[in-house]
Structures are given as structure tokens and as C-alpha cells.
Fold this protein.
Amino acid sequence: MSNTFSIRSARPADFDQWLPLWEGYNRFYERSVPEEVTRITWARFFDAYEPMHAVVAEHDGRLVGLVHYLFHRNTAMLAPVCYLQDLFTAGDTRGQGVGRALIEAVYERAQAAGSPRVYWMTQESNTTARRLYDGVAEYSGFIQYRRQF
């Protein structure tokens, strides 16, 4: 792939090409997402009342990356902050700037929405992604805790 790809908001007709990227993302994180959750998540991207959004990278009519983000309130800021929740690129396009371009697209959209911050998490062991992240953001030093129910 040459470095010519476009970044755009996902469209409802993209589902069939988005789905393998989404499934690849879920496999990478060794998680199983029920089909119903996948379908509802996809629908939320196109619901004007939802704070969730999807952006894709496209090369020669093929989707080669995705990023999902959402806006939420924050107790320390007036404007909603932006959480970059999912980022994934096709294996044959890694290292070609797709991930960086998708992050930059979220930055642009967050700034346009008046959001003062974009943040995300990754696994500590995800060294490949962390090399990219270290170049486009600062490490906050926070550690995540959670309890599943």
C-alpha cells in the first residue's frame, strides 16, 4: 500500500468492511463481543443522540483502519472530554501512518467540538502501539482499576 489513504466518518454502508476490523481488534484484546452488542454499537455511531463516533481509513475502496471515540462529562472541566476507545489497523497497513492519521482525525474532531482533552488506554505490553502513542501524546502515568459484574 502506498501512503495514500483517506480518513472519513464511517457510513452505514461500511458495516461489511468495518466488521472484520472490529473482529480483529477484539481478537487482539482477547475478548468476545456478542453479535447483539456489535450491532447496537454500530447503530450508535449513526444515532445523533449518542456521543459515540466512528472514523475509518480507506485505501482504494478498502477499509484499512478504524477508530471509535466518545465524548463525556468530566468533573474537572466544563467541556466534555474525548475518550478514544478503539483503534485498529489492518495488519498489512501497519507502520504506514494509518493509526497516526486516525488519532489525528480524533484530535481534529475533538477540537472542533470544543473538547479540551483526548485520552485513551492501552495494555502495558502493547509496545508497538505505545511507540506510536509516545509520539502523538503524553503518558499520563495513570493505572486502570476495574471490577467486572
About this structure: The mean pLDDT is 95. The helical segments are 15-28, 35-44, 98-112, 127-136. The first strand starts at residue 6 and ends at 9. The beta strands are 6-9, 52-59, 62-74, 77-89, 118-119.
